[in-house]
Each structure stands twice: as structure tokens, then as C-alpha cells.
């Protein structure tokens, strides 16, 4: 099966034509296949003005972050004194979109750059229960 690819962010996330997000990770088989595709003089669809919005469940986000990052994220949420946010985070099955301002605030509070949020959500969206 042959795929085409589209750039989605400036920091290495690629969208394959079947909807799979591929992180810039030399240990990722799909990334290696993409690099081979590029070496054959193929060109991905350029970065659009806005990346598509993707979502992940909070439990997937937790699985992607380090234990320390997740603990700091929970501390930030608790210190917000926002009952709606606290309730939202308490249910790990809730989905959070990559363009969420709340996610951006949490990321900033735990030291994750805004440029990395999309990549983290894309990676988290691929986490499955073994």
C-alpha cells in the first residue's frame, strides 16, 4: 500500500493519507518509512496555516507524560480552584483537543513548550490499553 503525507506542524509531525499521525522519532517504523519515501524524491503536502485539531483522552495524556509531569499537571488543576476543570480532569475518559487553551495553560505550568503540545497529543492519541 502506498501513502502520501502532509506536514501538520513545524516540529516534525506528519499526517499519513490514512489518518495516522507520525512523530519525528527515528525509532518509529512509520517515521522510517516516511524518510524512505522522502529519499525517493517525494514531497509532502506543505504545512497549512492551521494544523488539524486532534484529541486524546486524559488517561492517554497521562500515559504519555512522565509521572512528575502528570503530578505537576494535577497540582496545577487543583490549585486553579475551578470546579469544572477539576471535575473534567477527574474523569480520565474525557477528551481534550490539541487546541485547548486549558491544555496550553497546563503545559506552560509544567514546563512543556506550546510547540510541543500538538506532538504530545498526537502521541497520546496512539496509546492503547494493552
Low-pLDDT residue spans: none
Q: What is the total tally of β strands?
A: 5
**Quaternary structure state of the chains depicted:** single chain
- What overall geometry do the principal axes of the alpha carbons give? elongated
Question: How far is the N terminus from the C terminus?
Answer: 27 Å
SS field, number of helical segments = 6
**Helix/strand/pairing category:** mainly alpha
SSE pattern: EEEHEHHHEHH
> Would you tell me the overall average pLDDT?
84
Amount of beta strand: 5-15%
How many domain modules?
Answer: 2
Radius of gyration from the CA trace?
Answer: 16 Å
How are the strands of the largest sheet arranged? 1-2-3
The residue fraction in helices comes out at 40-55%
Sketch the major β-sheet.
3 strands, antiparallel
Amino acid at each position: 500500500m502506498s501513502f502520501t503525507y502532509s506536514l501538520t506542524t513545524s516540529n516534525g509531525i506528519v499526517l499519513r493519507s490514512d489518518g495516522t499521525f507520525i512523530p519525528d522519532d527515528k525509532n518509529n517504523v512509520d517515521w522510517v518509512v516516511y524518510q524512505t519515501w522522502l529519499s525517493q524524491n517525494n514531497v509532502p503536502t506543505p504545512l497549512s496555516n492551521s494544523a488539524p485539531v486532534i484529541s486524546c483522552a486524559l488517561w492517554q495524556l497521562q500515559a504519555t507524560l512522565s509521572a512528575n509531569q502528570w503530578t505537576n499537571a494535577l497540582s496545577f488543576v487543583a490549585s486553579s480552584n475551578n470546579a469544572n476543570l477539576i471535575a473534567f480532569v477527574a474523569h480520565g475518559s474525557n477528551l481534550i483537543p490539541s487546541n485547548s487553551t486549558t491544555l496550553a495553560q497546563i503545559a506552560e505550568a509544567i514546563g512543556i513548550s506550546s510547540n510541543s503540545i500538538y506532538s504530545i497529543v498526537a502521541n497520546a492519541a496512539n496509546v492503547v490499553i494493552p
